[in-house]
Amino acid sequence: MSSAQSSTNRNQTLLGFKCTRGLLVSALLLVLGACTSESAREAEVAAQQAAQVATEQEAMRLEQERARQRAEEIRRQREVQAAEQARLQAQREQEEAEARARADAERRAQEEAERREQARIAAIAAAEEERQEKLNRIAELEAQIAQLTASTSTNESRNETMRQAIAVAEELIEALTAEQAKYDNVEDGQTIEPLAKEYIDELEARKNQLVQQAGGQ
């Protein structure tokens, strides 16, 4: 009886030991499982946090890029506006310079036109004065011819000299009359056909010489 009871006790002790070991293993497995689950959760949370950080960083980068693009666009717009303002300013300055140049040219042209008009008027006045002078000379010559014609004498030599003087005077009248006609065609106070001043002066000198010669005879 004692041997059987002892064997039974041993069996019970072994059984209890096995049960205890099984419980310990189960508990250890539970602990390990819990630890593993906690690590997995922590890893998942860390991954989520890392993804959130990456998302936020990407969003920040995109916002910075958009801000940079906006700043670049504003800069380009300002450069375009500045260039347009410079172009308009240069255009205004050029137009003002051209307007001043036109005004100066018009003023100079007006002054030149006035100067030429004054010169033309003066030339016309001088030509008219010269024309009137020739008319006066013609009248004087006609009177002188009449006087010479009336002063004939018995001195044939004197009469011949007077006739020559009268002929020269008549030729001078014709030349002055021809000169007078030239004033009908005048441009800027000057006759288009040249005046025969030297020829008239020569006739005048010859006539005077003959008159003096006749007077001394």
For the termini, the CA-CA separation is 221 Å
- Can you summarize the main beta sheet? 2 strands, antiparallel
Q: Biggest sheet: strands side by side, in what order?
A: 1-2
Number of strands: 2
List unreliable stretches of 5+ residues: none
- Please give the count of helices: 3
Structural class, from helix and strand content?
mainly alpha
- Topology as a string of helices (H) and strands (E): HHEEH
Shape: rod-shaped
Helix content: over 70%
Mean pLDDT: 76
Rounded to an integer, what's the Rg over CA atoms? 69 Å
Residues in β-strands, percent: under 5%
Secondary structure elements and pairings:
Blueprint: H1 2-150, H2 156-182, E1 186-187, E2 190-191, H3 197-216
Antiparallel strand pairs: 1-2
Helix pairs in contact: 1-2, 2-3
Description:
- It contains 3 helices and 2 strands; from the N terminus they run H-H-E-E-H.
- Helix 1 packs antiparallel against helix 2 and helix 2 runs antiparallel to helix 3.
Report a brief summary of the structure.
The protein has 217 residues and is mostly helical.
Protein traits:
2 strands, two-stranded antiparallel sheet, 90% helix, 217 residues
